[in-house]
Amino acid sequence: MPVTMTTRVALALAAAGLSVVAAPSATAHEGAGDVATNTRGEQVAERGAGVRMSHVANLQYDRSGEAQNGSDIEFVRIDGRDYALAGTLDLGMQIIDITRPTAPRRVAVYDCKVSQGDIQVWKKKNRVLASYTADSTLGEEGAASRCGRDLKLGLDDAGTIIVDLTTPSRPQSVSFLSVPRGSHNMTVHPSGNFLYNSNSDLATSTAPAVTIYDISRPSLPKKVQDYRIPYVPTSLGSESHDITFNASGTRAFVAALSQTLILDTRNPRAPKQIGQIIDPSINVVHQSDPVTLRRKDGSTRSLLVITDERAGAAASVECPGGGLHVYDITGSRVSEPVKIGAWFIDAVRPQEGTTCTSHVLRMYPRQKLMTIAWYSQGVRVIDIRGLATATGSPETVAMGSGIGMREVGHYVFPDSDTWSFKTNRISRNGSFYGYGNDLVRGFDVYRFRGLTNRTVPPLVPQDLGSDHRSTPSGLLAPAAAVVPAVWVALLLHRRGRRRPS
Fold this sequence. Notes:
Layout: H1 3-15, E1 49-51, E2 53-59, E3 70-78, E4 81-88, E5 93-97, E6 105-110, E7 116-124, E8 127-134, H2 139-144, H3 146-150, E9 159-164, E10 172-178, E11 185-188, E12 194-198, E13 209-214, E14 222-228, E15 242-245, E16 251-255, E17 260-264, E18 272-277, E19 285-294, E20 300-308, E21 318-319, E22 324-328, E23 338-344, E24 349-350, E25 361-364, E26 369-373, E27 379-383, E28 397-399, E29 401-402, E30 405-412, E31 418-422, E32 432-438, E33 442-448, H4 486-494
Parallel strand pairs: 23-28
Antiparallel strand pairs: 1-30, 2-33, 3-4, 4-5, 5-6, 7-8, 8-9, 9-10, 11-12, 12-13, 13-14, 15-16, 16-17, 17-18, 19-20, 20-22, 21-24, 22-23, 25-26, 26-27, 27-30, 29-30, 31-32, 32-33
Helix pairs in contact: 1-4
């Protein structure tokens, strides 16, 4: 971008009370994981602001008046009833009946006081199983909670717990996968027979690896190997933070802090690297999710959407923080992805110390929609149908609308600090109930009213989490040198343009 443009917009930012600043180190990913950054009162806010969305219900995990520490969320349908599985940083897995979305009801808590609480859910024969992560050592509380007692875990244990949810009101401990460096996230292969672990350690780790386990016998998991991945020097880190498989399980997309790796996983015991993305404009590669869309002529296009959890969810001084970076990976481009641009929410403003950046997303390719949590900027719904034909370049920046994506709904509370936002069911007109898991507020239910200008195929109730979390090369600059110049383009783009209604 020309220096003259940067100078002009920097002056404009200064006049508006904003500043272009370097992203701080991503320390929030170490140890106990991300930390709630808003101050919670005795009661959460009851009113917020939204576009095409309304708030339906809030459910508290802990009535002490403290932050609720909600993290990941997944869904499962058992015996005709729908359940949300909500992870927490230290309050165990919350099992919530959402058969009536307007009246969510907690039916059980799997007592496992560990930090992170990332969840995957899958079926094995007649059993419903879930995995639950401990990123750091269990400590006294974790070892003394039910999962620690059942599995005879010690204070220094870290890793992944497998839980039987066949009877949701009576979750049962099954087994423990010991991972000394912790399970920040884990991903179950679509076959249900393998689990890939992401430890998300930062720059102190110089021998990064994805640890692979055979979980074909859930009660007797076995380590397969530590699959070595590239080390990126002078970066925040090279370890995997999160992994997403495609629906068939033949590809894995590894979001590894300073890089994204594309793996051939046709043999999930022995993956092979076929692509790498190192993008200096991304501060923290948080999630890398593929989506394949069909064009009007019947052909298909595959894309990869990479979320930048700027500064590792450290407190922000401005919004919109890190955005979504989009790559074309159609056909042979899977080994040399082509960037078509970056997308940000339409919210340029001071943030006053709370967290503002993209976080957990989910794709719904059949409906051409995406949901995403944006911490203090709440929950967002994105129309992605334009990605099938969008053009752009590495320098293309969009805010609210552009590069084939268009925000069509959002809802924000004064105390929002939302970690994840997903849905298990979308109606034919695109309306749905969405579920947010919030560090401050706990469990929130929202209603998205849908789109009046198009009809989308319905999403049937999900039995399992559908994502199965289910290259240009070059060195990434040190974090302190990564200046989010996107604010320049964002502010220019904002001038002379009306906000969406």
